[in-house]
Amino acid sequence: MEYKCGYVCLVGRANAGKSTLINALTGQKVAIVSPKPQTTRNNILGILTKESSQIVFVDTPGIHTTKNALDKYMMKNVRSALGGCDVVVYLVDGTKKLQEDEKKYINNLIAKELKVIVAVTKVDILNYNKVYPILAELGEIKGVCDIIPISSIKGQNLDVLEDAILKYIPASSEKNFIYPEDEYTDKSVRFLVAEIIREKALYLYSDEIPHGIALDIVKFDDSDKITNIEVDIICEKDTHKSIIIGKGGAKIKKLGEDARLDIEKLLGKKVMLKMFVKVEPNWRNKPNNLSEFGYNDGLK
User: Whole-model pTM?
Assistant: First the structure.
């Protein structure tokens, strides 16, 4: 039997659908999802293992212009992921016009001799007349391995995408899997818990607030029947703190209720969740803060 195993980097602009795709491919809630840009901050592995193959997907932050040290950290993650992958899947949002900078980015990937597959996302909400011009425009780019229209929500053409990926990752006569077959991500439970809380904040608060917060899990006491979790929510301004807490504590109570339900699904047990809001001015530009909150591995 031939075995295949390799790394696949998911790249694209913010909100192109990278996190939704990695969740759909692995069948697990590996990465948080929201309609707001820069939802993903870290490289997150989603591991898809079958009898004769293991594909390690790397979900990267959306490509964007950097404005602070946290942004630079996120873009460094993208470059790092590209350096160690066997295949790149560049995601194009099918609901938007293909931008010149996207075509330039794809050409740059090809120039680096990377195997590039382009996936056009969200085709379930489009008709053929809207998808075809994007496919035709992408078809003019020389060196793209495959161009595949997909829907992560409907599962459309995900099997086609998987088959295309398998054509380009290393093969071996011996089982060459990198991770245990029952693992679906490299991230710890504590990381996943913090991401769940941040996802709920992205939905609950106005645009600027969730982008300016970090989560610091200060207590994670796991017993057989119940898990006690205490979390510091770090924000940059006193005005943001007031908004996060809300009148009479209503907003932070809602945040806790929404997050606790998903955390209980993740852990399979009852959770006691306590959250506290702290102000750390301009933390997104301070290396010590970035390190403390898990955002500056090797950042220069």
Answer: 0.81
